[in-house]
Specification:
The protein is of the alpha/beta class. Helix content is 52%, strand content 14%. The protein has an eight-stranded mixed sheet with strand order 3-2-4-1-5-6-7-8, with helices on both faces. Strand 5 (216-222), helix 10 and strand 6 (244-248) form a beta-alpha-beta unit. Helix 6 (114-127) packs parallel to helix 7 (144-155). The structure holds guanosine-5'-diphosphate.
Length: 296
C-alpha cells in the first residue's frame, strides 16, 4: 500500500519525540532530519523536500510548540497539516459544464492506466447520477477500442467509436453531437498514448483540445514511476495544459514520491487516485486523508 515505508519511518522519528516529554530545539531538528531522509527515500522531489522541511522547522521550533504540554503531538499536527498542503490542501473536484455535456479529455502515456480510468470514472460518475458517454479516440494502440467497449459493457454505459481509420478530432466532434442527441451529460474522451512524449502525440492532443474545448483535461500518470511521473506531468502541462491529475496504481506504490511531489511541482491538483485494477477502484483524492495514512 502507498506510503508504507514512509509511514514506518515517520512513526519511528515521532516515537522518539514522544518519549521525551519536553522538547528542545535540538530534539525537533533531529526529528526533522529523519523526516527529510524518509521523504527522500520515498522518492519525493528534492526541492519539494527542502522547502517542506524548512517550513515545518519554522513552525515547529517556535516558543508555542516547545513550551507546550504535548510538544510531540504539536509537531505531528504541523507535519500533518503541511503534508496535506503538499498534496494540494483541499480536495479538488471536476468542473461540470453549466450547459451539458461536460467534456472530459483524458491524456497520458501508454500503460499509465488511461483507458481503465475512463471506465472507472464512468462508473463513479454514473453512481453520482450522471450518464456518461465513453469515446474511443485512441486509434493507435491495438485493442484500445475493444478494451473500452468491454469496460463500457461492464459499466453499462454507451461507448462511441468510429473504428481506427478516422481522425481523433473528427471522432471527438462526432461523439459530442452523439452525446447531445442521446442525453449523455458527460463525454469522456480516451485519447491516444505513446510510450514516450513526442511532438506528434502532443500535436494530436492539442488538435483535439482545440476542436472540442474540454471543460476538464485529466492527465493520467502511473504513481509507481515516481519522479518520472512528475516529469511527465510537467511536460504535458507545459505543452497541453491540464486541469488535474489522476494518479493510478497507488495500491502498488509503497513509496508515494509522485503523490507527494506532483501537485507542488506542477501546481495542478490530484483529482482522483487509482487504488486497484477493478472498476470500483477509483476514488476522489483527499489530501487530508492521504496525509493521515502517512501519520497513522
Ligand atoms: P493505458 O495504456 O494508459 O490506456 O493503460 P491501461 O488502462 O490499459 O492500463 C494498463 C494496466 O494498468 C492495466 O493492466 C490496468 O489494469 C492497470 N491499472 C490501471 N490502473 C490501475 C490501478 O490503479 N492499480 C493497479 N494495480 N493497476 C492499474
Amino acid at each position: 500500500m502507498i506510503f508504507e515505508g514512509l509511514a514506518d519511518k515517520l512513526q519511528g522519528a515521532f516515537d522518539k519525540l514522544k518519549g521525551k516529554g519536553k522538547l528542545s530545539e535540538k530534539d525537533v531538528k533531529g526529528a526533522l532530519r529523519e523526516v527529510k531522509l524518509a521523504l527522500l527515500e520515498a522518492d519525493v522531489n528534492f526541492k519539494v523536500v527542502k522547502k517542506f522541511v524548512k517550513k515545518i522547522e519554522e513552525r515547529a521550533v517556535g516558543h508555542e510548540v516547545l513550551t507546550s504540554l504535548t510538544p510531540a503531538q504539536q509537531v505531528i499536527k504541523i507535519v500533518n497539516e503541511e503534508l496535506t498542503e503538499l498534496m494540494g490542501g483541499t480536495q479538488s473536484k471536476i468542473t461540470f459544464a453549466s450547459n451539458p455535456p461536460t467534456i472530459i479529455m483524458m491524456a497520458g502515456l501508454q500503460g499509465a492506466g488511461k483507458t481503465t480510468t475512463v471506465g472507472k470514472l464512468a462508473k463513479l460518475l454514473k453512481s453520482q447520477g450522471k450518464n456518461p458517454l465513453l469515446v474511443a479516440a485512441d486509434i493507435y494502440r491495438p485493442a484500445a477500442i475493444k478494451q473500452l467497449q468491454v469496460l463500457g459493457e461492464k459499466v453499462e454505459q454507451p461507448v462511441f467509436t468510429m473504428g481506427d481509420k478516422q481522425d481523433p478530432v473528427d471522432i471527438a466532434k462526432a461523439a459530442i453531437s452523439h452525446a447531445e442527441s442521446n442525453g449523455n451529460d458527460v463525454v469522456i474522451i480516451d485519447t491516444a498514448g505513446r510510450l514516450h512524449i513526442d511532438e506528434a502525440l502532443m500535436d494530436e492532443l492539442k488538435n483535439v483540445k482545440k476542436a472540442v474545448k474540454p471543460h476538464e483535461i485529466l492527465l493520467v500518470v502511473d504513481s509507481m514511476t515516481g519522479q518520472d511521473a512528475v516529469n511527465v506531468a510537467e511536460n504535458f502541462d507545459q505543452a497541453l495544459g491540464v486541469d488535474g491529475v489522476v494518479l493510478t496504481k497507488l495500491d502498488g506504490d509503497a513509496r508515494g514520491g509522485a503523490a507527494l511531489s506532483i501537485s507542488s511541482v506542477t501546481g495542478k491538483p490530484i483529482k482522483f487516485g487509482g487504488f486497484g485494477e477493478k472498476l470500483e477502484d477509483l476514488r476522489e483524492f483527499h489530501p487530508d486523508r492521504m496525509a493521515s495514512r502517512i501519520l497513522g
